[in-house]
Amino acid sequence: MSEVIPNPIVNTAELLNQYAAGKRDFTSIELSAVDLKAADLKGADLSYAELSGADLSGANLRGVDLSYANLNEANLSGANLRGAILIGTDLRHAKLETADLREADYDPDTTHFPPGFDPIQAGMRSDRSS
């Protein structure tokens, strides 16, 4: 397995500027506790991202790849995560109230949700057919 190298982006403004310029690969970005409220990151690759404690409330994360990302304690209230990939994602203690998670993919063994959260009730899809 190859080593995952951190993305050199250092702040929210730089991330949003690069996204606006057409970049979509933000693999391994490290932006804990940042304010990305209502940000439009539709279709971005944020796999392996460190976004613990980030405020992503109201953000457009439709179709975003968040595989193996750390979103522990992130605020995703009202965020659009429809069709997102959440396999291996750490969502423990994340705020998911009113988040649109319909058709988002998860792995029942590796995706970690807040206590009491039901991915099936939220309209999510298991990556396994069993």
TrEMBL record:
Q: SUPFAM superfamilies, alphabetically?
A: Pentapeptide repeat-like
One Pfam family linked to the record: Pentapeptide
Per the record, which residues fall in region Disordered?
A: 103-130
Q: What is the protein named?
A: Pentapeptide repeat-containing protein
Q: What organism is the protein native to?
A: Scytonema millei VB511283
